[in-house]
Amino acid sequence: MQRRYTFTNYPLLLAGSLLFIIGCKKQEYELPTAEKKLQNDVIKRTQGPNIVGQSIEFAYAMALSPGYGKLVSAEVEASIAGATGTYLENNSYYTNQGGVDVGVPIGQPSVTSGTKTKVMFTKDTSAATLRYFYLIPAEARGKTVSFKFSAISDDGEAVSYSMGPYTIAKMDMVRNLTVSNNNSAYISIADMAVYNAAAATTNAAKIDLVYLYRNITTSAFNHALVSPAADTLYLPGVTLPAGVNRSTKMIKVFNLQDYNLAQLQYGIYIDDLDFEQLNFASTPNFAINLKAEAGVWVETADGKYRAYIYINSVNSNGSAVISIKRLAL
Amino acid sequence: MKKYLPIVLTMLLAACICLSCKKDYPVDEDGLLITTRAECYVSSFELLGSDFVTVRVGAAVVDTTAQTIKVTVQFGTDLKNLYPQFTLASDCKLDPKITGKTDFSNLANPRVYTVISGNRQVRKPYAIFITVQPR
Predict the structure, then answer these.
(1) Cβ separation of A286 and B133 shorter than 8 Å?
(2) Which positions in chain B touch A254 (Cβ < 8 Å)?
(3) Per-residue pLDDT tens for A198-231?
(4) B41-67: b or e for each residue (b if 16 or more CB lie within 10 Å)?
(5) ipTM score of the complex?
(6) Are B69 and B129 in contact (CB under 8 A)?
(7) What is the pLDDT of residues A49-71, one digit of tens each?
(8) Do both A130 and A214 map to the same domain?
(9) Which chain A residue has the Cα nearest residue B75?
């Protein structure tokens, strides 16, 4: 017997479709109801490598429902005590119509004792966001640091939030050193400093580079960083102080505007790993015709340091501003 | 007959698919297409330093008859760490391949790169002559 399909299931199909259509309801959005209990949250505001001497910034938010209590204190505990200058804000900020952040004091200035930094609230408030600035100490170099944020309300309720661990970079940094022709022209990577000729004689063994500017019409010399031991072709008119004779390996780069050094809009960060992966085989010991936003990777003659020297700005009067990141190998 | 109709249709469809497949062009050992083009020349040449900025003083002079490329580089150029860039005729390739930094410091013995045509039948070596600008 042949089975013939004569749409006997048609009404069933129709009923099912109708049920499906009627059953799908658009759910109206409802504002979530805040929990009554004390809550907290933290965000880390700074980016890039954590360098000794710089700060790590956090925003710590704590709140409970209005009418159910008020905040009494906020505290941050770091696994390694911060350097002097570590503090927890005691102002709560709002942005006025002019777009300016206005601080309203809501507590006493923070008190840091060892690894703990605390603010006692003096204003009745059930919600606040306080900024925490941890100044990275030298003791933390190469280690990791963790943080515990905590808040207490007037009914004794306490909450906490842990952040980290964060690795602290091994490298150092110095910004905005001025170098000038025949004056502050002798650069020491070990000291992260610039010397004039007299000081260079005293520190001869530590002078790695000479800055010079030459306006030569037959070739593009301009601003240059040259090793004292480089061919005299690259040190025209330079009389080196006695004992200044090191050879520093160099790699010229462009378009590497490290944010910490350049403070420009580029989100590029040089970290410890970048120094460790450099290859200085068969690189020269001079770099001429440097422009603003150019940079030079260097390795000192004794192999103790690698550094990145960034050219912040140049001046045709024979000077420049440089910033240095350095890693001790 | 009706029973065999789907089978016959399927076989016809398969036959159509097979016939419609076009023959592929051959590729060489580098996976590049071998075409029918016999043109074989360098149209331009660029030389970049370690900072990926040009080190040339003026355009490189390409002589397709003598098969030479003459380029003057800036005073103070690090000749051991340069990045050459060739613009070749359509479908050509270069031998040896450029894989990274190249040492051009031996000015007495210029480096030679061979251009190979699209049909892989024509090979023309080009010598790179570098002159360093005096200070």
Answers:
(1) no
(2) 51-53
(3) 999 999 999 999 999 999 988 999 999 999 999 9
(4) bbeebebbbbbeeebbbeebebeeeeb
(5) 0.78
(6) yes
(7) 999 999 999 999 999 988 888 99
(8) no
(9) A219
Q: Is residue A24 part of a domain?
A: no
Considering the domain architecture, whether residues A105 and A241 belong to the same structural domain is answered as no
Radius of gyration from C-alpha coordinates of chain A: 31
Which residue segments constitute the domains of chain B, with CATH numbers given?
A: 25-132 (2.60.40.2340)
CA distance A251 to chain B (A): 7
* A224 and A315 together in one domain: yes
- Residue after which a domain boundary falls, among A167, A182, A210: A167
Number of residues in chain A: 329
Same domain, A198 and A146: no
Number of CB atoms found within 10 A of residue A329's CB = 12
Helix (H) or strand (E) holding A43: strand A39-44
Amino acid code (one letter) for A172: D
Neighbours of A249 (CB within 10 A): 19
CATH number, domain of A96, equals 2.60.40.3550
Would residue A28 count as lying in a domain?
A: no
Residues A76 and A187 both lie in one domain: no
d(CA A3, CA A323): 88
Range of the domain at A124: 39-167
Domain annotation covers residue A25? no
Same domain for A105 and A243: no
Provide the 3-class DSSP secondary structure of residue A280. Answer: coil
Taking the model in full, what pTM does it have? 0.83
Of A134, A167, A200, which residue sits at a domain end?
Answer: A167
User: Hey, are the CB atoms on B50 and A253 less than 8 Å from each other?
Assistant: yes
For residue B3 the two structure tokens come to: 């029973």
| Per-residue tokens: A109 | 């200035």
Interface residue of B80, B132, B135 to substitute, partner A, most A CBs within 10 Å: B135
When CB atoms are compared, the residue of A219, A255, A282 closest to B75 is A219
Is the torsion defined by CA of A239, B73, A309, B80 positive or negative? negative
Q: In DSSP terms, which residues pair with B102 in a beta bridge?
A: B82
* Residue A12 Ramachandran class (φ > 0 left, ψ -120 to 50 alpha, else beta): alpha
CA pair distance A169, A136, nearest whole angstrom: 10
